[in-house]
Every structure is written in C-alpha cells, then in structure tokens.
Design brief:
The protein is 54% helix and 6% strand. It is elongated and about 85 Å long. By secondary structure, the chain is mainly alpha-helical. It folds into two domains: 4-202, Fumarase/aspartase (N-terminal domain) (Fumarase C, Chain B, domain 1, Orthogonal Bundle); 210-223 and 298-324 and 342-511, Up-down Bundle (Fumarase C, Chain A, domain 2), CATH 1.20.200.10.
Length: 516
C-alpha cells in the first residue's frame, strides 16, 4: 500500500485507500500538481462567480436554503449567508465519530469536491488539503442527518472548522479550530459564494462510514468461510456441499465463490469424495445422510452475502468518487443544473442489504456454535475440558449466551432504514434517505459481528484442544492449520473456569487486524 495519495479530477478512490488513510497507513494526501487540475477548478469557480455577479438566482449562493430558496440575496450578503449556514446547522447531538471515521469523512468529502463540478475555489481545495495533510479532523456528532440534502448538519462541522469555529481533533488533542489555524500561522478561511454549502451538501458521512463497514464485513465473509471449513472437519461432515460441480447447476456468482472458498480450506476434499470414505462421508448424527443446514447450506447463505458485498462495493465506490451536491456546475456546457444528487438512497439500500446479510451470517455462526455445544456432537457438553470436573466447571456455557445476545441484537438492528423516510424542513425535504442512520447502524453491526466471530473461533479452537487431548484431532488443510495456530497463540485452552472477555478482545484484534 503506498504511503501517499494524490487527488485529481475524476480520481478513483478505492475503499482500501479510504481505510489506509483512516488508519494512518497513508501518511500524505495532496492535490494533484497537474496544471490542468487547477485550471479546471478555477474555471468552474469563475463560472459560478460570474453567474452570481450577473444576478442569476443560484441556489445557496444568491438564494436562501431549502424551503427559503425563494428569497434572494444581495451580492454583499453572500459571505454572511455562508457563515449562517454552517452556524445554524451546528445542532448535531450524540458523541463524536471516532478518529478513523472522521479521517475517512474528511477524505471522502475532499475527494468528491475534486471532481470539479461544485463551483468552489482552488483556495478552498488547498484548505481541505491542509486538513488531510496535518490530520486535523473536525469533531462531528453522530446524529443530525436524515440523509437528504446531504449530510448537512454533520458536514457543517467541517465548514465551521475551516472558518475557525467549533472543535477539532489534532495530534491526539481536542482543540479549538481557531487555535489550530493560529498554530499553523494561518487565518480561518472566509467562504466565497456557495462554498460552505458545497462542503455540507453531500453524502460523504454516510458513504465514508459505509466504506469502512464494508471492509470489516469483507473480512467477516472470509472468516466465516474458514470457520465453516473447520466445522466440517470437527463435524466429520461431507465435502460435497462445497464442490463446484454442485454450484454449476445453480450459478449464482457469490454462491460459487463461497463454496470454492470453503473448499480451499478443507483437507483432501476431492480425495475424500472420490474414495467415499465412510468415516468422512457420513454425518455425525447416526443414520443421517446430510449435515444440518448451518453447515450444508453455508454456500447459499454466505454466497448471498458475497453478492451483496460485490454490489454494494460498486455503489459505495461510485458515491465516494461522485459529485453529490446541488446545484452542479458544468462550465464547459455553461449549465447550472439543480437536482438531487445529495439524496443518499444508494447508500441506504447498500447499508440495509449489508445489515440484513451480516445479521444472517452471525445467526449462522450462532447456530454453528450451538452444534459444538450440544451432546449430539462428539464433544463434551459446553466444551468443558475432560481434564476438569464437569460439575464444577462450565466451559463455554456463558460464551454461548453472549453469542446469542449478539445475534439477537443484530437481528433487531437489521430493520431497513430506507422505509423510515419522513418529511422535514417545512416539507421541503419531503422524502429523505436516512442513509446516515443506516450507515451508523451498519458500523455498529460490524463491531458486533467481529465480536461474534471471535467467540465462535474460540469455541472451534477449544474443540480442537479437546479432540487433541483425546487423540482424535482431525487432519487439517495446511492453510487452516496455520490460521488456527495463530488463534491458539491468542487463546490458550480453557480448562478451569476463567474470564474470557480479554481473550475475546485480543483475538478480535488479531482476526481483524488493520481495520478501523
């Protein structure tokens, strides 16, 4: 991963770039030095300014905002109009987003403005560049956006910080924005026509948070495939549900990919199928010829998740590389186009789709863990080590309760936000996306999913410990064995009852390393 990033016209920011900057692996972000870039921004800004000076009713520059757009402003009032915009939107509530999330938000908003259709000056672009280079992040409360007319209230905290108002996070300290500019030897920025609106009237909060969440869920997909392969080995189950020949006759792309991913972790899967070894072809439940759905149907469940990831990535990356404010200024065509690019419906539906998918995957993990805990498996109840008295020690009994609590909470949070549109702002915003709430829900669900995966893989590792003690440890694919060797380093065998919360967090850090 490069340690620097250059923003330019039509820049294609990837989710991996977003994460790398958010976590500090990209150290430098700069505007392109290509003179074509500056010329384009200058011409686009000059086009807007000329329209305002000629008396055109340019929304948010020479008119009021939203339901007040019928009002007109004198040229001398445009500066006050921009200040009042970010000031009256200073009504966010709740805690601030975390540092990595703030970093992603500032990067996405800057990248959207580099697309060159927002009418802003190059001077404003340079101020945004300074925020990114010095990692100065305005504190942004998590609540206050309905996801249409953009993330107005959250993004007002960026505009306010540029103007020297409110607070920022810099070098690990919360400071007044005005103080930071003074330490850099600069005066607070004075907005020109419509420039505060250009900062605020976009989808960059919801898109940035959705992007960070997506990367966590991609890792969840990969870990679920690995966990399922381990379950097949523990359950002594057949490999047939994962073979490409099976999925070729129901060719959903994600389903085939998920089956192949699980198959890649299995030990001598093709040989086991061809030999029809009764020890590896029969199910653990006597007389059954097929495994429970939580093993046999994973390609279908995880495959739908993979397809949701594939589709939603395209939507999120399109959003973070788009012009999503209003109006749009096309100086070459001499057009000012009023529209609704600020409405984050794609982000809402992407997040809602991923929320439902993540809840289903964690339900799957909960059910797989239940198979390990019950007496019909070849493991002791609750995964209590055979080397300790089972009437005194309780193994993973409470761990399963925590897993169930997580799965239940995620099911509740999977409710789609896209159906919760409600009219607001004097009914000017009469339909809204609720995309920012959907993205925040998804972020929280991704946190819960990482906890659930950590608990499940600990249960699998405990099962391996027990089988190894009994001389029944199955042979593992080298790749699977390597992963569980790493897990064993983070989680020693549970014998006598002990608190496991620290082990959960340690393993989570290991499993999801590098994610914000």
């Amino acid at each position: 991963m490069p340690t620097s990033l250059t923003l330019n016209l039509k820049n294609q920011l990837r989710l991996e770039d977003l994460l790398a900057y958010a976590t500090g692996r990209i150290e430098t972000v700069s505007l392109s030095s290509d003179p074509v870039f500056r010329t384009w921004i200058d011409k686009n800004h000059a086009f807007l300014q000329a329209k305002v000076e000629d008396g055109w009713p340019i929304y948010g520059a020479s008119t009021g905002f939203g339901s007040s757009s019928a009002s007109r402003m004198a040229l001398s009032e445009t500066g006050d109009l921009q200040k009042n915009l970010f000031r009256y939107h200073g009504c966010g509530v709740g805690p601030s987003f975390q540092e990595a999330e703030l970093a992603a938000i500032v990067l996405v908003r800057t990248n959207c403005l580099t697309q060159g259709c927002s009418g802003i000056s190059f001077e404003l672009m340079e101020r945004l560049e300074l925020l990114l280079q010095h990692r100065i992040f305005p504190l942004i409360p998590v609540r206050g956006s309905v996801g249409a007319s953009g993330d107005l209230t959250p993004l007002s905290y960026i505009a306010a910080a540029l103007a020297g108002e409110r607070e920022v996070l810099w070098q690990g300290r919360v400071m007044k924005a005005e103080t930071v500019w003074a330490e850099l030897g600069l005066k607070p920025y004075t907005f020109k026509s419509r420039e505060a609106l250009s900062i605020m009237n976009g989808t960059s909060v919801m898109a940035a948070i959705a992007g960070l969440s997506w990367l966590r869920l991609e890792r969840l997909y990969e870990r679920t495939a690995l966990a399922t392969a381990a379950m097949v080995e523990l359950w002594q189950g057949p490999c047939a549900p994962f073979f490409p020949e099976l999925h070729a006759v129901k060719p959903h792309r994600g389903q085939g990919e998920a089956g192949a991913k699980i198959l890649s972790y299995l030990f001598e899967a093709r040989e086991r199928l061809q030999k029809r070894d009764p020890l590896t072809q029969k199910a653990s439940i006597e007389g059954a010829v097929q495994d429970p759905y939580s093993i046999r149907c994973v390609p279908q469940i995880l495959g739908a998740f993979k397809d949701a990831l594939n589709v939603s990535r395209e939507w999120i990356e399109t959003e973070i590389n788009s012009v999503n404010d209003n109006p749009v200024f096309l100086h070459e065509e001499e057009l000012v186009l009023n529209g609704g690019h600020f409405l984050g419906q794609h982000m809402t539906l992407a997040c809602d789709m991923l929320k439902a998918s993540a809840a289903n995957v964690v339900n799957l993990l909960d059910r797989q863990m239940a198979l390990l805990m019950e007496s019909k498996s070849r493991l002791p109840d609750n995964l209590v080590s055979p080397s300790v008295p089972s009437h005194l020690h309780h193994g993973f009994k409470a761990m399963q309760i925590t897993m169930s609590a997580i799965a239940s909470e995620m099911a509740k949070m999977a409710m789609p936000m896209s159906v919760f549109s409600r009219p607001t702002e004097a009914s000017n915003q009469d339909v809204v996306s609720m995309g920012t709430t959907a993205a925040r829900d998804l972020l929280q669900m991704s946190e819960l999913a990482m906890d659930a995966m950590s608990i499940h893989l600990m249960a699998i590792q405990q099962s391996f410990y027990i089988l190894d003690e009994q001389g029944l440890m199955p042979r593992l694919n080298p790749c699977l064995a390597e992963v569980f060797a790493g897990i064993a380093e983070q989680f020693p065998m549970l014998k006598e009852d002990r608190a496991l919360d620290t082990n959960i967090m340690t393993l989570r850090t290991h499993l999801f390393e590098g994610l914000a």
